[in-house]
C-alpha cells in the first residue's frame, strides 16, 4: 500500500518544492544585481578612472550582497516567503571585513566575490546560480589579468580597426565589462522568466 | 533466489521501510509544509495557506502538531499595522524531512 502511495507523494513533494523554490526568486536577483554592477564598472574605464576600478569592486562586491539581502527582505515582507539557506547579509559583511583586513585579496577581488556567491549557491543546492557564480569568478579573474583586453587588442589590430601603432586600446576593458555584465543580466532575466512560470504553474 | 522472485521477502522489506516512516511527518499536509519550509527556511501563515491551499484552521492545526514535535518554531509579530505569524523549520525538522524522503524513495525503488 505504502509502496503504491509513495510515487504520487514524491511527485507532489517535488512539485511543491519547485514552486516554493521559484517563489523565492533564488537565481534571478543576484544575477541581475551583479550583472548591473559589472556594467557600471565600465564607467570607470570610459572616464579615465581605470585605477579606481579595483577599489570599485572592493566596495561593489559586498554592496551586491547587501543589495540582494535588502531585496530578499523586501520580498519576505511583501509576500511572506523566506530567502532560503545562506545569508546574503552575512556574506556581504564578511566580504567587506575580509577586503578591509586581508590586502592580498584585493588582487583576486572578483574571484573572491564569485566564490562567495558560489558558497551561497551550494548551500541552496542551486546549480544554475553555482554555474553563473563560477563563471563570474573565472571571467572576473581573466578580466583582472587583462586577458580579454589583450585578445580584443590583437583582434582589433588584426582587422585594422585599431592599429598597435596608435597606442593602447583602452576601450577593450569597457567593452568586456559591458558584455560580461549584459550576459549576467540576460542569464538573470532567463532565470526570472523560469521562476515566474514555475511559481504560477 | 533473487529477492524479486520471492514476494514474502519483498513484503518484509517493504514493512521494514514502512516502520521507518514518521507518522508526524508522513501525513500529506505536514509533509508539504515541511517541504515548503525546507526550501524557504521561513514563511508566513498567509503564504503557507495559499501555497498549500489550506484553510486557516487546518493549517493552524498542522503547524501546532509540528511545533509540538519540535519540527518548526512559530514567531508572532507586527509589521506596520499588519499582524504576522512566521513559521520556521528547525534542524530536527530538516532531519525528519530528509529521513522521510529517503524512506519514501526506498519504498518507491522496491
Q: Could you write a compact summary of the structure shown?
A:
The complex is a heterodimer of chains A (201) and B (110). By secondary structure, chain A is mainly α.
Strand content of chain B: 15-25%
Q: Mind telling me the C-alpha Rg of chain A?
A: 20 Å
CATH class annotation of chain B: Mainly Alpha
Q: What's the CATH architecture name of chain B?
A: Orthogonal Bundle
Overall strand count of chain B: 3
Query: Per the principal axes of the C-alpha atoms, what is the gross shape of chain A?
Result: elongated
Largest sheet of chain A, in brief, is:
none
Count of separate DSSP helical elements of chain B: 6
Distance separating the two termini of chain B: 16 Å
Unreliable spans of chain A: none
- When the domains of chain B are counted, the total is 1
Order of helices and strands of chain B: HHHEHHEEH
- Mind telling me the C-alpha Rg of chain B? 18 Å
Low-confidence stretches of chain B: none
- What name does the CATH topology of chain B carry? Arc Repressor Mutant, subunit A
Number of helices of chain A: 8
Mean pLDDT of chain B: 84
The main sheet of chain B orders its strands as 1-3-2
Per DSSP, what share of the residues of chain A sits in E-state strands of 2 or more residues? under 5%
Helix and strand layout, with pairings?
The complex is a heterodimer of chains A (201) and B (110).
Chain A: H1 2-23, H2 28-46, H3 52-79, H4 88-101, H5 109-123, H6 127-144, H7 147-159, H8 171-200
Helix pairs in contact in A: 1-8, 2-3, 2-8, 3-4, 3-5, 4-5, 5-6, 6-8, 7-8
Chain B: H1 7-20, H2 23-26, H3 28-40, E1 42-44, H4 45-52, H5 56-68, E2 72-79, E3 82-89, H6 91-109
Amino acid at each position: 500500500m505504502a509502496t503504491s502511495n509513495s510515487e504520487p507523494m514524491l511527485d507532489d513533494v517535488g512539485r511543491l518544492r519547485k514552486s516554493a523554490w521559484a517563489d523565492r526568486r533564488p537565481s534571478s536577483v543576484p544575477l541581475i544585481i551583479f550583472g548591473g554592477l559589472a556594467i557600471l564598472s565600465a564607467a570607470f574605464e570610459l572616464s579615465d578612472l581605470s585605477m579606481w576600478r579595483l577599489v570599485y569592486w572592493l566596495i561593489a562586491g559586498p554592496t551586491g550582497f547587501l543589495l540582494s539581502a535588502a531585496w530578499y527582505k523586501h520580498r519576505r515582507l511583501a509576500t511572506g516567503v523566506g530567502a532560503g539557506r545562506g545569508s546574503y547579509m552575512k556574506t556581504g559583511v564578511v566580504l567587506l571585513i575580509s577586503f578591509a583586513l586581508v590586502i592580498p585579496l584585493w588582487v583576486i577581488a572578483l574571484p573572491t566575490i564569485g566564490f562567495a556567491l558560489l558558497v551561497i549557491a551550494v548551500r541552496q543546492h542551486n546549480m544554475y546560480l553555482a554555474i553563473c557564480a563560477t563563471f563570474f569568478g573565472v571571467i572576473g579573474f581573466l578580466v583582472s589579468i587583462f586577458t580579454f583586453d589583450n585578445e580584443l587588442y590583437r583582434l582589433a589590430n588584426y582587422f585594422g580597426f585599431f592599429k598597435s601603432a596608435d597606442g593602447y586600446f583602452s576601450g577593450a576593458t569597457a567593452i568586456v565589462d559591458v558584455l560580461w555584465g549584459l550576459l549576467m543580466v540576460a542569464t538573470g532575466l532567463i532565470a526570472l522568466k523560469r521562476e515566474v512560470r514555475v511559481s504560477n504553474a | 533466489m533473487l529477492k524479486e522472485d520471492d514476494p514474502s521477502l519483498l513484503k518484509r522489506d517493504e514493512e521494514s521501510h514502512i516502520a521507518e516512516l514518521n507518522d508526524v511527518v508522513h501525513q500529506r499536509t505536514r509533509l508539504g509544509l515541511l517541504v515548503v519550509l525546507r526550501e524557504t527556511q521561513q514563511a508566513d501563515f498567509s503564504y503557507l495557506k495559499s501555497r498549500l491551499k489550506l484553510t486557516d484552521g487546518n493549517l493552524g492545526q498542522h503547524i501546532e502538531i509540528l511545533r509540538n514535535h519540535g519540527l518548526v518554531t512559530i514567531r508572532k509579530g507586527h509589521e506596520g499595522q499588519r499582524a504576522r505569524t512566521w513559521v520556521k523549520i528547525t534542524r530536527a525538522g530538516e532531519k525528519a524531512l530528509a529521513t522521510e524522503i529517503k524512506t519514501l524513495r526506498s519504498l518507491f525503488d522496491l
